[in-house]
Amino acid sequence: MKPRALIDFLGTIEKLKCNTRHSFTSTGRHESVAEHCWRLSVMALLVADEFPDVDISKVVKMCLIHDFGEAITGDVPSFLKTEKDEAAEDLAIAELLKLLPPKTGEEFRGLFSEMAEHTTSEAKLFKALDNLEAIISHNEAPIETWIPHEYTSNLTYGTENVAYSEYLKALKEEIRQDSLAKIESASDITSL
Q: Is the separation of the CB atoms in 66 and 96 below 8 Å?
């Protein structure tokens, strides 16, 4: 990739560091899209041994690029995202990928297609981890940042995407227990 094209592309996706998500960090500030992608990638690396038949390198690539469109569109929480939002993000991704060298652009287009089709082992693992990382983030954030919807959605979000794996179901259950404990703890405090 030519140096100027690389710098320009990085400048565009730099917005992922600026654009925030609905999630908050443990210190109570909004999480950036880039922070989510980074930790999701680390998560994929850490579960690699549980999925010996999965190309973890490909999963990490999916984790790193899956929110590229949000550099242009910003983040829309999954529970608010419409078909119009999805189409805008898809268009943003298509435009961004045109800025890359043909080989890289083609590889990334293939990964986005694979994620959308959600049929390969890699795409399934990526999607499950994406859901689970979001819930972990919510559990780490102060409960004052939760909206009413999260008291129930944190318990069920991603259930369908982990159903294919005993490991992911066990991980989801641990995260669910953390959500329940956080809700219970908040209930105890508010009842005083």
A: no
131 alpha carbon, distance to own chain's centre: 6
* Separation between Cα atoms, residue 141 and residue 88, nearest integer Å: 29
Residue 50, classed as helix, strand or coil, is helix
Please give the Cα distance from 34 to 14 (Å, whole number). 8
Rounded distance between C-alpha atoms, residue 58 and residue 78, angstroms? 23
Query: Residues 13-26: pLDDT tens digits?
Result: 999 999 999 999 99
Q: Is 99 helix (H, G, I), strand (E, B) or coil?
A: coil
Using CA atoms, how far residue 171 sits from 15, 66, 82, 149, 165, in Å, is 31, 22, 29, 22, 10
Distance of CA 47 to the CA centre of its chain: 16
- Comparing CA positions, the residue from 56, 72, 58 lying closest to residue 19 is 72
d(CA 23, CA 33): 9
Tokens coding 53:
């038949």
Cβ distance 151 to 183 under 8 Å?
A: yes
Q: How far apart are CA 183 and CA 143, in angstroms?
A: 8
Q: Cα–Cα distance between 36 and 143 in angstroms, integer?
A: 19
C-alpha dist (Å) from residue 180 to 10, 24, 112, 129, 161:
40, 18, 34, 20, 20
pLDDT tens profile 41-91:
999 999 999 999 999 999 999 999 999 999 999 998 888 889 999 999 999
